[in-house]
Amino acid sequence: MPCPPEAPGGRRLPPLRSVGPLLQRFGIVIGLxxxxxxxxxxxxxxxxxxxxxxxxxxxxxxxxxxxxxTYVLLTGGVDLSLGxxxxxxxVVAATFAHPGDYPVVVPILLGILAGAACGAANGVVxxxxxxxxxxxxxxxxxxxxxLALLVSGGRPVSxxxxxxTRLGGELAGIPIPVLILGAVAAGSWxxxxxxxxxxxxxxxxxxENAARAAGISVHRVKMFAYTVxxxxxxxxxxxxxxxxxxxxxxxxxxxxxxxxxxxxxxGTSLSGGVGGVGGTLLGAxxxxxxxxxxxxxxxxxxxxxxxxxxxxxxxxxxxRRNKL
Amino acid sequence: MRAxxxxxLELRAGEVHALMGENGAGKSTLMRVVAGLHLxxxxxxxxxxxxxxxxxxxEAMRLGIAMIHQELMPIPDLTVAExxxxxxxxxxxxxxWIDRRKQREEARRLLGLLGADVSVGRRxxxxxxxxxxxxxIAKALARDARIVIMDEPTAxxxxxxxxxxxxxxxxxxxxxxxxxxITHRMNEVFCIAQTVTVLRDGKHVETCPARDLDQxxxxxxxxxxxxxxxxxxxxxxxxxxxPSLGREGPRTGxxxxxxxxxxxAPGALAVRGLGRAGAFQDVSFEVRRGEILGLAGLxxxxxxxxxxxxFGLMPADTGSIWVDGEPVRICCPADAMxxxxxxxxxxxxxYGLVPTMSVRQNITLASLRACCxxxxxxxxxxxxxxxxxxxEFGIRTSGNRQAVGQLSGGNQQKVVIARALxxxxxxxxxxxxxxxxxVGAKMEVYGIIARLAREGxxxxxxxxxxxxxxxxxxxxxxxxxxxxxxxxxxxxxxxxEVLKYAMPA
Lengths: 324, 505
Prior knowledge:
The complex is a heterodimer.
Chain A: H1 7-42, H2 49-74, H3 82-95, H4 105-127, H5 133-152, H6 162-165, E1 170-171, E2 174-175, H7 176-194, H8 196-206, H9 208-213, H10 218-244, H11 255-265, H12 277-296, H13 301-323
Antiparallel strand pairs in A: 1-2
Chain B: E1 16-20, H1 27-34, E2 45-47, E3 50-52, H2 57-62, E4 65-68, H3 80-84, E5 91-92, E6 97-98, H4 100-113, H5 129-142, E7 147-151, H6 159-174, E8 178-182, H7 186-192, E9 195-200, E10 203-209, H8 215-223, H9 258-262, E11 269-276, E12 280-287, E13 292-297, H10 303-310, E14 318-323, E15 326-328, H11 333-338, E16 341-344, H12 348-352, H13 359-364, E17 372-373, E18 376-377, H14 379-392, H15 409-421, E19 427-431, H16 439-454, E20 458-462, H17 466-472, E21 475-480, E22 483-488, H18 495-502
Parallel strand pairs in B: 1-8, 1-9, 4-7, 7-8, 13-20, 13-21, 16-19, 19-20
Antiparallel strand pairs in B: 2-3, 5-6, 9-10, 11-12, 11-14, 14-15, 17-18, 21-22
């Protein structure tokens, strides 16, 4: 029997391989649980309802952006224009949100539309223009910032209607931005896991050529991803403007990097095809909890940045090792 | 599957040693082992009588072994001089300034040795393929190579460029350099080689002086006498549902005008005058329902390019495609699928599988719409459809949620086939469907191909495996250098005849 020497190894291999995805899937949950436990023990204020709601509120903007950019990263692209789009859409919404001008849906719709337009422009340049996503969205980052300054004349746009600023408030004790994040995340999760287009997004990121050979219109799928990403950045811009009660043309600088970091910590691969909204939400939560914890521990914000950087690199590093 | 088994080769200084064999015979693999690109599992390499171990291209280079690849790898934006002396720049001083003048002079000297007339200051990208080749050879000389391996150096050059290359080879051998020359071209072998080694299926067949051989004998050695019987009773030629238009024997593609009948023929798929610049020209043929049309030819003859055009992966720029007597425009695979064309692509990793998805998701990818209710995927239905395919094609998997990358090559191939067939195409294109998979899986794939024809589908089978295409197809087109060189009836043809048409003159 030639089998015995090989059989044990052969049998042991599959379980070993399946530990990888398991760690990938739950590693972040375990990490998050551990950090929360430590913080709950070390600081009296962490595990209070008020603080936890506070954490949720703090991550809501980054969370919405991160869910949006998940679509793009899943196709194997990237979007660096998010922060500028947040500023542009905030300014656009604020401009149409002066008391007594228009019903509140108008600024909201215009803000989302402005974001979607930026995203669609990114999509066109990336697909038909064949420009690398990094460059295309880098260009949009500057263009959208310029547009934000142009629309606002370089000054913050204030004097918002109370209906508009309510978006930054609370509903039944829960911050409205958190509710919006919840709705966006749930909707995106359902979309990506249960629709045909959602499946195509994974296929395009997993192997663009094979997706094309299977009759999928790769251009259309990518266009969709960039447009949704832009629209959600628009939504985030509106929420931010409502929270700070002004449209700030200088808001949102480097927000895209935090969003991408959250997605990547959540296990979505930068090369596309792997990951999802669940991980992104956990990634954003992990970043929020660590920020909050370091605040509570009175760690200087300088250190906070260093820690954040280490976590981003560390999470992806662990992810790589699990895959090997 | 072993790419090479028990192959021995002896190379003497100053000789040109031709390495011959069909596609996949193991010529390039053998040379890649010698050049340090692959590690051998067994055997040894002796250099000047001493055993050496070659673990990387760098080590091969240090031992004086250089390989001129089929696809040249120059650095296009550096100058000729910089490319020739790449990694061997003459430097001076502690910081290692490159001595530009010395670099140019040295490059000029080396190119002069080869009798080449190339200005050393030009950018590499401005050069012709033949000139680039000369630069690659000069590069090998700069590294003091004593053994130069050339993998089909004349595949991309012509006429007087070939003569120039032969003069270079002559110069090299006079200086005692040994040359391994891989080629498909008979006349070149008899023109320059002193010794010929023939490989077949990764095994050593024969080594003998070139003068003891003639073309007939050489083809015989490459093809082998035995007729492998791994094929199913796939193609009962007697019952061929498509009695090949009553034509007999070979003919050249250009002579006959299939084109005129193409428009009205009942053939499922007809192609007339199809061409794409730099890939293939003037390709016309038709395939009928229930017929398997084989497409044979050497690597680079344009077979994959033709079928890629039919499926819209790389659309043709001239000619027309007809499906069921209607002219169609195919610009992308989605178009082709609308007209009932399905394709199993040659490159399983590149164009076949989505490695990040499960077996189930890979199988249903091209027909997801059928598993959907509006935009929503019905997971239960999808699972049932995938399970049915897994049963139908005998895909061995631990479950339809298994990652597709964990399957064996043969089962991965069956997944690709299952995906292409799930939408129910009436015209099926199979590009090397049985390459790189084990014998058992091969037989299953052959069974599937035969079944497709019995079910009345029109099948186009591209294959480099001559026994395979000859046994499976009802009609066989042989392509050579982007054109249809002959149409043969496999039942009345031989491997020798196919090779005769496939080999460039």
